[in-house]
Queue: 2 jobs
Job 1
Amino acid sequence: MSNLSKIAKKEIKEMLTPSTLVPIIIIAIIFASLGDMMGGVEDELSEEQKIAVIMNDEGALGAIAYSVFDQGAEIVYNGTSVQEALDTLEDTDGTSLFIISSDFTENILSNQTGNITVYWMMKGAGIMDSVPSAAASSLLSNVDTTIAATLISYDMSDNASIILDPTSYTETTVFKGKEMDGISPTTIASVLSQQSLVMPLIVMMVIIYSGSIVISSMGTEKENKTLETLLTMPIRRTSIVFGKLLGAAVVGLIMAVIYMIGMSYYYSGLLGSSTVDLASYGMTLDLLDYTLIGISLFAALVSGLGLCMIMGIFAKNYKAAQTMTMPITFLAMIPMLATMLTDFDTLPLFAQVVLFAIPFSHPMIAMRALMFDDYTLVLSGIAYSLIFALVTMFIAVYLFRKDILLTGKVSRTDKKTGFPLIDMMLGMAKKRK
Amino acid sequence: MNAIEVKDLVKSYGSYQAVKGISFSVKEGEVYGLIGPNGAGKTTTLRVLSTLLEVTSGSIMVHGVDLREKPEDVRKIISYLPEDAGAYKHLKGREYLKFIAQFFAEGKEAEVLVARGLEIANLGERIDDKVETYSKGMARRLLVARALMIKPKLAILDELTSGLDVLNAQEIRKVVKSYAAQGTTMLLSSHNMLEVELLCDRIALIDDGKIVAEGTPEELKRKYSANNIEEVFVRAVKE
Ligand SMILES: Nc1ncnc2c1ncn2[C@@H]1O[C@H](COP(=O)(O)OP(=O)(O)OP(=O)(O)O)[C@@H](O)[C@H]1O
Ligand SMILES: [Mg+2]
């Protein structure tokens, strides 16, 4: 064996241990199921869409429009009440409501466009969410061309511009219980996704950055043999743990501010004048909302750091510490990708549970949720991540009082599972007996 | 009151017993040495006494404080020098002493501690260099200074002079003696038999987690009819 391969072999042996592999495998599984989930989102699109039609026109062209809708989609409601129609769509997961105006036929025949009012049922504002309206849009253009063809073949009109484009639309988007007139789902999605791209990205960066500070700090203290001295000084264990966490959090938040400044420049450049003023649709964040986002971010950060501290306790040296930041990185990336690509509301239950369980998700979800006044989700998220943070702190401080902090393992000859945390719990259970 | 009172101390790593029920006591101001072969359990004993490792069974009193009950009170009166200790590398020697001192005193008092530390470390101009540039012996001096400058009631020194040359070791021994005379109890381990003989008021010889001999250097030499502690060591361990 060459010297090169001897060295390489040693390195690989050092790095490929159950404690480095298992988290990555778990993450891979989560990712795989995340992919399935997204597949699920797309599948929905290919099904025949459910729509509602309110027919106010008694003329022939209105009837043609209706039959085009009927052929291209499943009509789940065709009464006269807008509210009932929207409720039915809500219940049946329908995509849109078309209201054919009472003067539809009359207008077209008198060389004006026939108006169809469209209510888009928007489900999510993620990159993968905003598509449902695409299928519904094609229905509308079918109506347009069919009516144009009718006009031509029966020679009903001699106005070229009406023949080319006999219908017009009035759009309203219904999203999370808000009705927004004159705006299409695509516009909302693009504005929202630009806005809510920043938060997940910053949260992810902060968690990863300050998390790795905590883990490396523990690894370094062990490698440089400074930890023992620290632990025999008259300093409370809680002070050591919280001192380290506070240091990392401050550095992490400074990072976040720098990122935010950079990002805001980037976005003001990017958005320029084309922005739709979401505030005029009631999608604003007030002081309370920003406070909640702040608390959510804080809770997520503390949870993340607590988690890192626990891992750091098991890190024998700096190198081991480096590998241990991997799972945290992935854990922070999952909610970031998920919130960027889809909306929490549109995810299947399993994925919602996974996302909710990751404390980092909550500040990422919070911004959009608060725009739509979904306080339940945000508050329960904050409550959950605060509890998560407390539990991790408690475990970290507990472990700081244990041999494992210095010996790095529970036993020498006892049977072991290869997972220090599980070993420790087994050990504790045994002691109880 | 004894500075240290250890009764039937057992320390296990998992199912492996590293210390198998040892008892000893150290008087205030005494210099007490632990000697014994590699892996005998010296470091383990010292780490337990420094509140770093949990006691498996037995009792330890340090200046009348029950270590198992109130480890945080014990930490206020002890100072531990690990056998392979390090200092924060990004700090300069002086900064390191200041960093440590602030946990024990404030303002003027802290300055007194640092001044004492500088004197023990005796690193000249190099005290203002980063710790990462220090040689092994220089770093050791800094750490000994750190441990003694606070004048703890009990100093626990694992392999006190490891890595030091003859002259430096001699000097550190003088420092230890003078601090002991001022009232600091010293519990130390060493592989240097001459050092132990010169420095310690009493010695315990640990082998395989048990104390196999204990007494003043004179007593031990008489008991094993040896000329020096090295012979005592060899005879006691081979028995
Ligand atoms: N973290 C640990 N996990 C398991 N066993 C350990 C651990 N630390 C020490 N031991 C074992 O405990 C026994 C005593 O070790 P200890 O370090 O106390 O010896 P020592 O007397 O200080 O030796 P040396 O003179 O080489 O420093 C040894 O058998 C050692 O292998
Ligand atoms: Mg040792």
Note: The pocket of adenosine-5'-triphosphate (ligand 1) is lined by residues A 407, 412; B 13, 16, 18, 36, 38-44, 83 (CB under 6 Å).
Job 2
Amino acid sequence: MSGKKQVRESLASKIASSLKAGVGEVWRNNMGKAGLIIIVFIVIISIYALATLPPGLPDKWKNRLAWSEYPTSVPPEWVRYFGVPVAEHKIYINPQTSYSGIVTPQNIQGALPYYANALGLKQTIVGYVQVYSVEYRLNDPAFPTGILTLFTPINNSVVIVNGVERQVQVLPILVVQRPDGLSIVVAQESSALKITDLAFKNMSVTADLFWRQYIDYFAQQGVTINMTETDARGFATQMIFGKPLGGKEFEPLTGTYRLHLIIVYAGAHPNAIQQAITAGQLGFEKIKIVVKGNAYGISGTDNMGRDLWLAILYGFPVALAVGLFAAVASVIIGLVIGVISGYYGGLVDEVIQRFIDVLSNIPILPILILIGVILQEKPGVGPWEKLFIIIGFLVILGWGGTAIIVRSMTLSIKAEPYIDAAKAIGASNARIIFRHIIPQILPYAMASLVFSVPGAIITEAGLSVLGIEHGLPTWGKILADAQANRGIAYKMWWWILPPGLMLAITGLAFVLLGLAIETIVEPRLRRR
Amino acid sequence: MKGEALIRVEDLKVWFPVRRSIVDLLARRPQLYVHAVDGVTFEIYRGETLCLVGESGCGKTTTARAIVRLIDKENIAGGRILLKPSEDVLEEVKKIQPDAVAEEGYVDMYKLKGKALLGVRRETQMIFQDPFASLNPRFRILDILEEPLIVHKIGDKEERLEIVSKVLETVKLTPPEEFLPRFPHQLSGGQRQRVAIARALVLNPKILAADEPVSMLDVSIRAEVLEVLNELRDKMKMAILFITHDLALARYVCDRIAVMYLGKIVELGGADDIIQNPLHPYTQALINAIPEPEPENRKKIRKLRIKGEVTSAVNLPKGCRFRPRCVAYDENPHIQPRCEAEEPGLIEERPGHYAACWLYEKRSP
Amino acid sequence: MPVDRRILNVAFKRGITLGGSLIIIVFMTAVIIGATGYDTKILNALIEQRLQALKQSLQQREGITAEQIQQIIENERQRLREIYGLDKPWYQRLIPMTIRTFKLDLNVTSDDVANVAGLRIPVSVGDAIRAALPRTIIMITVAEIIAMAIALPLAPYIAYKRGSLLDKGVVTYAAITNAAPLWWLAMIAIYLFGFKAGIAPTQYRQILSYLKWDQFTAAPLETLYHVLYFAYLPILVTVFAFLGGWLYSVRAVAIRVVAEDYVVVAKAKGLPERMVVRKYILRVIAGPVVTFIILGLASSIQGFIITETVFDWPGMGSLYYQAILSGDAPTILGLIYVTTLVYVLGRYILEILYVILDPRVKM
Ligand SMILES: Nc1ncnc2c1ncn2[C@@H]1O[C@H](COP(=O)(O)OP(=O)(O)OP(=O)(O)O)[C@@H](O)[C@H]1O
Ligand SMILES: [Mg+2]
């Protein structure tokens, strides 16, 4: 009796075992194996992306200001291994204080020699001064693309003198001390301001401060630099990190640079300020100095400084969701309608067939674009909602092909005597459809499902490129921005190559898997 | 012999429309039909096997399919099929669908629907002609045999397994455990045919249409399986419609034989009667074609009592449909006008032995 | 059924369904545009813009009172609203709009759309399409024909050598071109050939100034050179992308034939490969291949919206895109009509060809 029992399988275990057998068969096929491996990778990356990416990324992606700390339009860092000289991107948080004390015109030479001897417009420094210093090593002959200083002052920074709150004002100055010994004042506020106002300021370098002195200095060394003020603005970092060769030519100056951020406090007695600072009532919670490199991260940045790697990562789960949802939905609709059309025949069949006739003549892409543009104008539709409405239309317009093939398969299965046999024992239509017909069609449906994944992903990305956007940072979105900035973006391979490559690899995985399933299913189809 | 008829087929007509084109429609050309079954009347009694014989394409399978209601309603061009179900089922039909109940405890097969139909189906089964195609290739033998039980909600898992094993033993597929997990393609042709038989028997039907059920079996198993059918018929008092084109087999299996030609029964009578004393020229030709058992007689060249090719079932000739192939027509000029003018009905030439031929007209009252 | 009657039958039946599809598709597009209020918004903005210009010019004139200006403006507004049909609700515009679409009797409303066509407003939708069509043919139809011309003779041999290294290479190539979007290949091509190597243009809109008939007759060689200079990269990329699909699908059809008994027998008889291919395979695959060719050519004139946009190639695809972006309903409808018409005609011809070529085919 136990032998007999083993014969019986539950429906679930039947499906599981046939799925297992199917996967096994695909695995034995080389194309199928390659496809499966890539898909497993994509799934793992998707999970990783969902787990690690910040939830606010879509909003941050749209916010131009959120990317000021990143270098703009730079390639990925690993280009260094292909012999491209790279100036490292470095972020210094809360650098060490190299000096603090009172500075007067008399002692400045001793206290802040790099400032006293620096090129550039200098203010008269009187008062309590703190200096934060960092070192930046430029190993390769390459120019960094900027320096940025960000401040987070202590909340409500005040000094209390004799029980009276005194407003303290500060003047931040950034000096770069080059490996050749030359110092340059690269950034400074034009006048002192309230310390709390610094929270809203990013201090970046400007050639306005030093360009004239710089040219004079090198003229004395015998190098003639031909530059107007406007020219100079575009060459600020090259002037700071380079050796002039004459004209407008610069050569990167390798070596160790020291960056000194000088904060001059005013508005109260220096001793009171010092006390307040040591008491933690005055000063900065956080100071960040960023030397922007000429390369960034794994995937480089776009012209807004956005880290493309983040969007590449984000693109994985979105692509999977788009592809699988569209494919599964359109194949299920095609399967159900095709089976109904073939099984019930008659008027139902006629109506469905004529409907599919109309559907198959619709120019899909223009209609999708039209719907997308209309959707674009509708306020209050969230990004995921927009995405799935567009995919929904893709599905609605796209199930016809599957339905036609499923219908013809249903017709031929319906004519099989075993269907008659099932009818004769009294099996219901539902039973015949679900137990006898659909299991025969399922392998084919599987192949057609897998094949329609890349199409859906590519179409969705293509719509993005046309500006039909849902607002999510995806591969399509990266390419869309490239298209919008085609004049500069098409020169930057790291902007256009990786997202398309991801699209192609993902698509390829499913095409390979589909080909494998097809070669397995095809002889079976023919045998019937 | 006479008893209660379980199946009554009354002037059954099954016509399949020939597809028309738009042009035909516009030209108002009449719809043409394949007259697969064209006015067939017979009864099968409780405990009786009626054999339906005839050449390929004459409508045997269509008749059987009509009885188990596998023909679409719109293809039934006329007539009725009345079945006598068991008391319980009849009661149920009376309750849920009184309009499908005909006179004398019969139900009209083509008026039934839904649950009432399901109840009748349980007692009406068919063994299909092609055992290769009538088993779902993706079903194990257990699934195939269990399906009728599941559909009719009979027993729990254990009980169903029991029933299925028993029926496999009945058709001599033993031990059952060996066959239950197999797929049809793992069986031989004969084994499949027995699975097809088992599937029809698993519900203990009262009425069975067996469409050439033993054509794939070798002689030894054939005899055994036929014996099983006979036993079941006697024990369960089944009515069996047995389709074959082998007259010798028909004589062995059946009580009565109906000979079919182009959708019509041309001769009906007791099995021995028909074999020994065929009346209709077509039956005579068929019996003539049976190889002689006596070796010395076998060498005698027999005159073939038939001419020409099978006529198309779409455009039937006027008058007797066998006329274009009939040797008797040529030999009997006196009936020729009759044959040309009118289709003969079944004429009772001897008690219980009918023939549809004008040759026998004047002798009948 | 005799063949001629069946041809009539198919011609009639399919004519009705395909013609019906065409009408339904154009009508539904008009419904989408109308019901969402998508075109009215843009038309209203357009009218206001013109009225603003009118107002300014009136104000410069002497001896005209504010009331008079107001009056003139109101009249003009009324007139414009009538011209654009804004005086009636959208569903009343629907039928006349659809009928005028079928007559190609509508005018382009957006300047940007006219620019893509290389023309100036006022211009009819028909003229805009007539201007854009040759450019799409030069890029996409030509590419389609080149890909066909390479694939048709090659694919049967590949099928014949199923499983060989060449065969595997072709399948892989086809899989890759299937997975990589054409418009992305276009971006990469612009990067590589345009920006890196500098041997192709990076802007393609300029082809507008060379692709002119009178220029061609005046200086044929020079014009041809210019046109080729702009067209070669788009054509090359498109051929690269299409070829995979063509090779694969023709190969797939041919493989089925190769496995047929009579071909196997011919092979076994030792007939030379060339002969087997020519005598058996090419003849049998003709049917499906004709399908691919006709449908391929018929859909090629739609242009490739995304790829043309990437190249900034002023063809049908760009026209489509610009029309949709600018809410130019007449042009959208006109394009939908013309491209669907050509596609439907292609299918119609095909289905009649099926009956003529293969009398066994069931309907
Ligand atoms: N569904 C159908 N549609 C159209 N014609 C049919 C259909 N079923 C059967 N026929 C036609 O009806 C006639 C009778 O067919 P049927 O299958 O009943 O013959 P048969 O006597 O069983 O023959 P065989 O001994 O070969 O099995 C044939 O001419 C057949 O072509
Ligand atoms: Mg039969």
Note: Chain B has a mean pLDDT of 85.
